[in-house]
Amino acid sequence: MSTLREQFNEDGYVILRNFLEKDQVNSIYTEARKIFAAQIKRVTGKSVDIDDKDAFENAMFEFFEKDFEAFVGTGKTVQHSFSLHRLGLDPKIENLLKEVGLANPVIGARAAMQFNSRFLSKDGSKHWKLDAHQDWRTGQGSLDSAVIWFPMVDAGAEIGALQVIPGSHKFGLQASSASGYQGGITSSLKEEDFIQTEFKVGDILIFSSFLIHQSGNNVTNNIRWSVQLRYNNLDEPTFIERGYPMAYIYKPETELVTPDFPTKEQLLEVYS
Ligand SMILES: O=C(O)CCC(=O)C(=O)O
User: Fold this and answer.
1) Percent of all residues in the chain with a pLDDT value above 70, rounded to a whole number
2) Ligand 1, pocket-test mutation among 213, 223, 225, 248, most atoms within 8 A of CB
3) Does 213 contact ligand 1 (Cβ within 6 A)?
4) What is the C-alpha R_g of the chain?
C-alpha cells in the first residue's frame, strides 16, 4: 500500500473520500446561496427558497440575464464568505498539505468558488468552463504548490466534474495561450488521456499545480458549485530563491463604482 504522499507524487493528485464533514461543505454552499438570494430578490423581485434547487437555480439564471454587473459583483462577494475562508484555514487542510509534502504551507491565492453552468455564460462563450491548463501558470509559486478542489454538490461526468491527466505534473510547464478563461495548453493533448473524476459531497481532490486538468462538460440544467483552495510551500528552495513571488493581482477600482455615492447624509444615517 502506497502512502498518500507516494500516490500524490506518482499521479499528481489524490481523491480523498469523506474528507470533509458534509455540514462544513453545506455551510459554504448555504452561505453562497443566501448571498445570491439577497440580490435575486432585489433584481427579480422574487424570494427564492435556496433549498428548492431547480427554482433557485432558475432564479440565478434570471438574475444573470437581468443584471450581469450585479451578478458579477455578487459572484465575487460569495468568494469572500467567512465559511469559505474558514475552511481554507482548517487544521485538517493544513495537515493534509503537510502530508503531501508542503512542509510550511501558506495561502497561494484567495479561496475561490465556481458556479459552472452554460446558462451562466454570455453569448454561448465558454466562460463557464476552463480548457486544459496547469494552475502553476497562474500562481507561479513554489514548485510543490497544491490545489484542493471539491464540489459542493454530488458531481460526476454529467455535471462536469474536473478531468485530470494522471502523472502530467511531471510533463513540465506547458506552453499556453492564456492563464485564465478562454485559453489553455496549446500542445496537443489526447482527450482519452483525461480521467473523469467523481465526487460525493465531502470528497475532495488535491492536486499538484502542475497537473494538467480541465473542466468537465456540465450537460445538466443544474449548476456545478465548487471550491478551489491554493497553497504554496514557504520552505521550497526555488520559491525562497525567487523572493516568494505572488502572481495574483488584487487591486481596487480606480473610479467610483457607483458615481456620486455616498452622500454625506447617507453616511450620517449609518452613524446616527
Ligand atoms: O472547476 C472547474 O471546472 C475548473 C477549475 C480549475 O480548473 C481550476 O480552478 O484550476
Assistant:
1) 96
2) 213
3) yes
4) 20
